Batch of 3 targets.
Target 1
Amino acid sequence: MLQRRKWCTGIILAALAALLVIAAAAVTDRAYADEPEKCRVKIVVLDKSTGEEIKDATPMVYDVKFEGGDYVYVPVTPEEDGRFLLEVPEDEWERDYRYTYKAEAKGYKYEYKSKRQEHGEYIEFGEKPQDAQGNWTLTLYVKLTPQTEEERLNDIRTESKKALSDYKKASDYEAEDQETLKTLIQTYSNKIDDAKTEDAIKQALAEGKGEIDKLVTAQAKNNDRYASKLMFTDRNGKTTPLLTGEKGQYEASLSLLDKGGVFSVEGDPAARWTVKKGLWIQSMAMNHSVEYVTERTGSFLTTSIPDDTEFVDAEISDASVTLGDGSKVTFTLKISTKEEDKTAAVAAVKEKIGGIGEVTLDSGDAIRQARTDYDGLLKSLQKKVDNYDVLTAAEKKLEELKKAKEAKEEAEAKQAKAVDEKITAIGEVTLDSENAVTEARKAYDALSDGAKEKVTRYGDLTAAEKKLDELKTAKEKEEAEAKAKAEAEAKAKAEAERKAKLPGKVSLKVKSGKRKAVLSWKKTSKAKGYVVYRSTKKNGTYKKIRTLKSAKTLKYTNTKLKKGRTYYYKVCAYNSTGKGPMSSPKKVKVK
């Protein structure tokens, strides 16, 4: 088998080399001069009605091959100058049946007599001339018939409706969705027929495909229904979901390092797993065909594989699982067998070990992951992990730290118990409990964080502190209220004494004069003098206009007033204690 593979590989490499030579020859303009089997073909496209050349036409050449019992037309890519470099068959009969040619142009149609001429007419190489450099050249003509706009649109409508009809297979959907698919095709075919422009036709086609894309195939629905239940348990016993992806498209990515793992379906021991391809391995002088999945057991690479086995082929296989109820889940199973993947796996393990760094109690996950990845390697690959001693040293250090932590936690538990006892000793909280509460708090605060976490009655301590604060606050409030009451009473007494010393209320009278107002009042008790206020509104702002500093002055004349205006006046008496009450406002209209 290996010899046959090497032989096939040689053939492929030789073919690739030949293709490279041909590709290189096509780059240079005259590279085919010394190759008489090559011919450069120019296609001129003409308007059939006028005979004029159509400049924006697109010439096309097809390489005709016979495969699977039918002809296959493979498009040939033109060179930069728009010409086609074609190989001229040596066989005289094949020369006229190797290539076909045609052209397309907007506003024109290519007319062919039968279905077999759909890709154009056959190129005849018998009349090919030579240019000055000895190159074979051939000029061909294609005549296109002008189309009316409606003919062109009808062709586009026909092509678009066919594209819509062929877009999806009805058999891929459930019965209900098949009817929906049928309705969508009909609906948007009608829209295509009703479209009046090329853009409108394209839009209708795009919208139709968009609506069809919203339908979910029967298999995709089934995949979505069960995909999350497919699990994979590795040889270390770790179980994880097998598939990744969404919307009915799922894949599983495994490598030979997962050898010995088991597939399963949650709640369905009767599930059967299958794949389409096998895997070739080489062990010493023998070849073995190993199935990825054993259908009976659902396990991965269960065949006994020696540690020195080298895998020489990589596969990407379509896989499926048939559930106990007969439903099926399909997915792509990707298996990595490349040598560089093995090298990468070793490098990844070395990186995991190197990433452990300084070992602390928080290094457990990193150490366990490095150990798991190391144990998952084939034994032949484990030997290539040259920093394995770092892993074992880290594991030893972690155990030492764990023991030290246990001893520390034991000491912290004793300290925490002593604090719990102090908290218990507080008992019912009164104002006399302050010393006991303070002592318990100091003992707790002196603990390490670890010991504090082990105190079981810390809530009782905070409750006791809260109760003590409430009692102290209540006492302080009571004392403050008593003090405030005494101060208020003293203030009220002082205010009463002050008011008793103030002058009495002035009894004011006002008379109008010529552009003046004459104010008068009786002598007010305890007055040292008087203050006169004026406003233009009864309830407006009164401004001070005169201070009379003698208690004997019982009259005041306000002059230079405006004739016909109304004024309001107030007067109050004052002494060394302060101002007495304001008189009632008096109104006067100036003459």
Note: Confidence is low (pLDDT under 50) at residues 1-31, 283-289.
Target 2
Amino acid sequence: MRVPAQRLSAMAVGALALLGAVPYAAVSAHAAVPNDADTELIIDSSSANGVTHGVSGVWPGSLQTVLIGGRPDLIEFDVSHIPTAGTPLTLMSLVTAPAGQELTVGRTYSTTDSPAPTANFTGYSTCYSSTFRFDELTFTEGRVTNAQIEFSANCGGPLHGLLRYHATVPLPAGAPTGVQLTGAPGVPVGSVAPISFKRGDALVSNPGSGVDGAVVAKEPAEDYRSPVQTWSPLGNRLFYYNDKGLYAARPDGSEPVLVRNGGLSEIPPEAAISPDGSTVVVADPFVSVYPTDGSAATSNADFQIQIQVPELTATLSDRIQFEHPRFLPDGSLLLTVAHSTGDHPSPDRSLYRYANGAAKRLIADANWGTPSPDGSRIAFVRTDSAGVHQLFVVGADGTSGLTQLTHGADDVSEPSWSPDGKLLAYSDAAYREVVEINAATGAPVGSIPNATSPVWTPPIIDSHVIREWGSDRVSTAVAASQLNFAAHGDAGDPRRVTAGAVVLSRSDTFADALGGSALAVRKNAPLLITDPARLDPAVKAEIGRVLAPGGTVYLLGGTAALSPAVASALSAYHVVRLSGETRYDTAVQIAKQISPNPRTVMVASGDNYPDALAAGAVGEPVLLTSGATMPKETAAYLNALNPDRSAANGTAIVTIGGPGDTALVAAYKGGKLPKWPSTVTRTKLAGNDRYATALMVAQTFFTSNTDVALATGGTWPDALSGGAMVGHRGGPLLLTDPAGISPALLSYLRSQSASLFALHLLGGPAALPNTIANQAAGVIGVPGHVVIDGFTPGGKYPFAAKTPDAADTERPGPSTHAVPMTQ
């Protein structure tokens, strides 16, 4: 059995490094007993060998008897009471050098030698056709003090394994796992950075200090599928799959959220998370896409992507399957495409880049494509001339800088980059060992025994609870504008966008502004408020900051709502007044400005504010009712629509809250919508109270958000401007009682944590006390990694190329809560 040189450096030389490591100094008080020391044994074998399958571990000498002795021409070893699922195993072997020779490090001894080595596994059967290779062998005063021995045998089936032994400095129980250890010249054993991996039937997260980390997920005994793992970009959620489905949990395995139910495939699917944390892509072996927040966990909808591969002309005998999805930083997807035909059932594999609906081949004859964190390089696996799977690195173009990093006799797979792009980890198939190497040179830097499926853990990026507020309602609206919009002409602002317009409403009542949030979202505009009689100086200054002269300012309401003096103060801009005789008519005029052919309209009460404001963040037209009564202006607008969303010009009808829904149904049944067909379905989003209704809007229209906003349900000004602000960022407006966040809302916020970077509290402590901030902080991120009030307007978001959504396209319509109009 031959082992690649670089793996031996990490394993064999690294074993010596382990023994002199400073982190293990505390165990040196345990006196070493000659020929009775801690031993590591790893066995990988066929289940048909009649001996054992997959035994591995590190055992203290006080529990097991370890005898290794002999002289330079003869070695015998006896490791007793090895724990197994059945009878404890005993390994006994004798290796003798040919006559007149000494045992040599690096040489393999087999049954063709004379005398032939033997291996016996007590309690089972005698093994034959044995071979032994000494990777390390040290004698001190006539006894073996250090050995690393690879062995193989036929015990009714193939068996091979690795024995590490050192007689002078015992290892602590459980080591090595994932802590960097030094002692030998620059070659550690253990992980050089936080990492997760599979060990046995469990996922182990971030081991350290010489012991395993948290067991995040454990494979059920009856399930032959293996858990898989991937991390959210924020580093606060580990995604894994078992027979129950795909889950996202905190790094310690707590608070699991079901992302997708089980039964996706009999093949263990692989998952990748988009750079903004919002989407998980699963290849099983077709490609499906799900939101990371679990909103599609139990849906029967088809989330499969139809990917065309032009280079592969499929015939009836062709089979194309997708494997190993990985996102590049720009949001495109790297996939291994396995192609087989009836004549060639063994698939050919190549790497493809999928973007904008098309897949293009990037690297031929390649598997396990994994981009570096900055996207400049791609690690992949390719078979060499000897048929061994080796690890390569190439530039992002698929051709430049091609470098082969491994050259040994063991197959490698499952490459993973360290967060800084300097290191790579991979699985070594021969011994189920994770090996870590320098990504530029291939030099070994660490190893983790009895481990597979490495995934380096990204550093946890702090989540934020940000309070958006000012000294009054006017300045709070200005603060919301400053979060989203750069100064006009400032093309160098990396995280804020240029405003497309400004929406202006009165500051003393909500009547004309209820449809204004949606207009602001759609027009890529801040929503500001001012005194009806005059333009507030702070508002004028903010308009001058975000909007160049000649830009459009929408005034909501007639001259009684915003006086001619306000319009006159805006003479440098193009002023568009949207008004009607009533608040209902004004809402209609706003709706027409948003879209002449809307795909979705929202119907909510205009006599109160909560339902309409929650709806406004969606960015679709909001039509108003007079409580449970349908105004004639609203009915006329609705009657002109085709309420069949499936039609080319159809519009989905969504009611927000009980009064709006009651008004629509009564109008339909009362003949006020005569052009509507006899069979009409609307989406009804009506909770038990205003808080539950706002949550239903969020659950229906928003998934896997980077931002959400939370406002008091007791007043309207903060929710008005804040709803426009967060809708522009692609997130929902949520309402809460200032006395505390409801369990249902806390659960929703927790489900968003894989992508949620910022929760915006709208208003000062008088509106939302600090207890609300603390409640929210407890669920949106990892404890110790949530910052309350520490983010400035225009501050850097963690996601590559992430800027607030401009909301220039219509949002997807609702797919749940459909109710016939007759009910």
Note: The chain has three domains: 31-166, 195-456, 463-788.
Target 3
Amino acid sequence: MVGICFQINDWTLVIEENKLYRQDREVSVEPRLINLLRFLAQHSGEVFCRDELIKHVWDGAFVTDQVVTQSIFELRKVLRDGRLDNTRYLVTVPKRGYKLVAETKQIRLEDTPYWKPCDTFTSTEADENQNHNVELNTEEQEKEQDETAQLSFPAGPLTRAVTNISNQVSNEKKKQGESFSFLHRWKLLAFDFFLVGVLIAVIFSVTYQQTTTHITKAVDTDLIEFTYHASRNSNNETEYLADGISQKLMADLASVGHYRVQLNKTAFTTGILPGKAVNVRVEEQQNKTYLDVEYRSNISNRVLFSRQYLMTNANLEHVLRQSSQDLMRALGVQASEQDMNRLMLGLPKEHGLLEMLVRANHFINQTDQKNFEKGIDLLENIALAEPNNDYVLSELYIAYNAYSALNPELELDENTAKIEKLSQDLQARYALSDVGVLPSRIYEALAMIAIKQDNKEDARAYLNLAFKNRESAFSYILEGKLAELDGDLDQAGESYSKAFFMDTSLETYMLAENLAFYSDLETVAYFMYRAVNPSEVRLMG
């Protein structure tokens, strides 16, 4: 498309240069994003799902849905360019895809308002004059060199330029019959020594200047960061188990202790250094599976707790309970037997189902559509085996809704029917239940049902019960949605930011944006929006 450009609101897209221009701005953009914007500009106002974008923009290459989603995010922040106005460019059409809504028109390269071609010189006459000048300059330089050679004298390296000028002056004087002054040469040398002295003084000053202390990290001693690892033989199954067990240990600690927890699985940074770190690894050795749990202090960089547990399908519940209790003791958290029993409520009892639940928790914390579907399949199989397990049904209900939020452009008619059926079952069972304390996940599911039914009073009551047991990123997202329904955008932004702090990931951002209903996070949660949509300086750096 030689010479073809697009005017997109106040931006000018110059495809040949991989650049966007607007008044006093010039932004270089990756070819991947340029190709995507060019295609959307050619079909402005049309909706395209991710498969169609992969077909037309990536030529049907093997590209995951996550690549498309991330490209849309990056393109949005390029077009926004750090501005806080309400100009809209790319929008998500729920259950369909994406479209460009900006005012768009095709223009010629020379008609662009901010792009200007570089000046060029092609005159033959100018070339000849330049060549003539070069010849003259060469002859003059040779002549000057011959004359200078007769009058050479010691000059320091810092004043060679000054010396050359002096030589020219001296040559003129010689032509007039004047002799070069010996005193003048020594004045030049003295000036050279003066410059050397100034240079030494500057170097000395810079070398010994005191620098200002800059604090780039603050240590939070009440924050624990969990990191999971696969077996050293790169077995993916062990990574899934390590992730699921990490989430269980985090949930237990958040339910009983005073610590705040977060999972380390992203490149985002918050500027806060966790005071403590817990590493979870599932290792395979000699046909046996072991769970390794290590607790390290980031302040002293010492390992304060390390233990290995032999793990099988038959003793998995015992290992989860024991490792959780041991870690709490190492952290100084007092957990009674009653507390531990409450933390194990709702876990599947049949052989092999608990391991399926642990693996499902890994998959439903991924943005990749196919991986998420694997997690839903595992939860559905567990629900078939234990149809009266309210905890599993709550996990499944939340997973269906999260899947819809992470994939707003997909048609979810089948899941919609399942969501409605689970909603009715959970509400009926809770109304008939005489259980004094329920797992937090059930309260979260009931709160979400109430929010979707615009029953704010019940939703608030369920959330209070959930927070009474523990804090979680999902509960904070629900709290933010409820605050938006009340019209309290400040509280909503605070709740979404707490969720993002606990689980600093793209999944948390997308859930806060699309769960139950769409939220404009640039307006509601500026901190989250800036974390996922950094400034142009960070983008181009």
Note: Residues 459 and 509 are 22 Å apart (CA to CA).
